[in-house]
Each structure stands twice: as structure tokens, then as C-alpha cells.
Amino acid sequence: MISRTSRFATLFAGLFLAFSMVAIDHAEARRGGSFGSRGTRTFHSAPPTRTAPAPTAPLERSMTPNTGVNTPARQPQAGLQRPGFMSGFGGTMIRGLLLGGLIGLLVGQGFGGLAGMFGFLLQALLIGGAIMLAIRFFRSQSARGPAPALAGAGYGQASRFENRAMAQQQTDPARSFTIPGFGGGSGGGSPAAGSEDITLAQTDLDAFQQLLTDVQEAFGREDHAALRRATTPEMVSYLSEELADNAQKGLRNEVSDITLLQADIAESWREDDRDYATAALRYESRDVTRERASGKIVEGDGDHPTETTELWTFTRENGSNWKLSAIQQA
């Protein structure tokens, strides 16, 4: 016969485990992600470059409607948006089994009912893990397929533009925003209907490097006016949402000392009166999250910069100033 003290101790441990399962869904939430718009190429994968040779994560959030024309590009997007096994039906089933076993323990079935429940729980976890591994394997195989066809064209265009940028450096050594290792031109993928590839000038590359610094610093200062000047309205909405979420949690994200290390143009194109350019950027920055009240660092290293590689897409209308329109994690 199980004593009342042992029974309640087991119940407490089980409830703690159940609530830990609920909390694990949100333990990995961090600032960042892939969001924004790339015109008609929003749901196309950007060509690989030397700066970002691996397949790029598709946009997770965008206001651009997906017409379904580019069906292969939609599959990885759906994969990123799928809930984890511990959320959705799988998590609900497991938590239900656990709580059911605890209730059985309370009504007098003892550890026998609880042990049977844990045995079934272990089987469910093993089956779920096998299914998840199979899904990831097939997705990685399909995502890896088109990369070789795009890589050669992208590198060829980058090399031609890099040579021109190096020649400009030699004729104008005082240029302050020359981007190291920057390629240019189109990545050479399959252009979407209604778009044509374009070639960029050094002034465009200088503008991209400046926007990298301006957007990061404006976000760290929580300067909404500066964000509106440097990004599209859609990007302003996403970044403002992140700032509001940080404020609600009593946190503040600070980004400073941004240094561009390497960059390439993955592709650049025109749609009607609007130009687009997607650049792979590898940069260093001091990125920390602090408590608003105390100033204590809760995430990041304030003494050492961290390295980040992302794809930033810029857009301009009728030859106006470039603005950031999308960010993708490389």
C-alpha cells in the first residue's frame, strides 16, 4: 500500500514534468527570424554565394500573397512553420497520457498504472522521433537538389563585379564604404515572370553597407522614426512588433559596433518601376539583451562581438533611396 506522502510526492513530480513539457515550446524563442518581401521572388530560394553557400531559410512571414506558382519553394516554407512534436497533437497526447496516469495513481491504481502509462509514453516518443527523422531527411534531400545548378551562375556574376569593385578601389582609395569581397549582378537563377535581371553600381553597394549599420543601430535605440526611413512599412511592422514584445518582457536589445566582414550579391532584378537586390552579409556586432530596470545582461556577450550571416533584400522605387524589405537567416 502506497503511503499518502509518497503518492502526493509522485503527483508533484509528475505535474512538474507536465508543465515543463508545456514550457519547452517557448524556451528557444529569440530575436530574429526570416521575414519580409522579395517581390515576385518572395517564395523563390535565393541563389547561394561564397558568403552564404548553404541553402537559405525561406521567409517565415510575408505580406506578399503566395499564388502557388512556385510549388517547390513552398514546401520548405511549410516545413519551417510546422509546430514541434511537443506542441500540437503530439504534445497534447503525451501530456494527456501523463496526467491520466497521475489521476489513476490518485484513485488507487498505484505505480502499476503509472508504469504502464510511461511504457506507452516511451513507445510514442520513439515512433514520433523516427517519423521526425524521416521527414527531415526527405526535406534536406529536396532542398539540396537545385543548389548546384544555381551556384555556378551566381559565382560568375560575383567575380566580374568584384573585379570592377577592386578597380574602383585602386582609382579612388579614399572611398569609405567599399564593401570587402562584394560581388554583384544577378545570381543567375530562373527569373520570376515579370522581372528582369539588373546590374548594380558601387554606390548601391555602399548604400547596402550603410543600411546594415543604420537598421541595426536604430533597432538597438528603439528609434521607430529611423526604422521608417531605412525599411519598408512591412519591415517596420515586424521590427516594431519585436520591440514591443521586448518592452512587455522588461528587456532591451542593444546592437552596436557593426563591422561588415564579407558580402556578395545573390541576385538583383527589376519589377515594373521597382528594383530589388538580395545581398549575403557576414558581419560582426555586439548584440546583447539587457533588463530594462537593472541594465543586467541576460543574453549575449558585451565584451566580445559575435558573427552573423544573413541575407538582406533591399528595394527602391523609381530610382529613390534603397530600403530594407526582407531578412533571411543563412
UniProtKB/TrEMBL annotation:
Q: Where is the composition biased (Gly residues)?
A: 181-191
Q: Which N-terminal stretch is annotated as signal sequence?
A: 1-23
User: Gene3D superfamilies attached here?
Assistant: 3.10.450.240
Residue ranges spanning the membrane: these are: 85-107, 114-138
Q: Where is the composition biased (Low complexity)?
A: 37-58
Q: What segment(s) does the record annotate as region Disordered?
A: 33-62, 164-196
Keywords tagged on the record: Membrane, Signal, Transmembrane, Transmembrane helix
Looking up SMART domains in the UniProt record yields: Tim44 (SM00978)
> In this protein, which residues make up the domain named Tim44-like?
185-329
Entries under PANTHER family matching the protein = BLL5807 PROTEIN (PTHR41542:SF1)
Would you tell me the protein name for this molecule? Predicted lipid-binding transport protein, Tim44 family
Q: Which organism is it from?
A: Mesorhizobium qingshengii
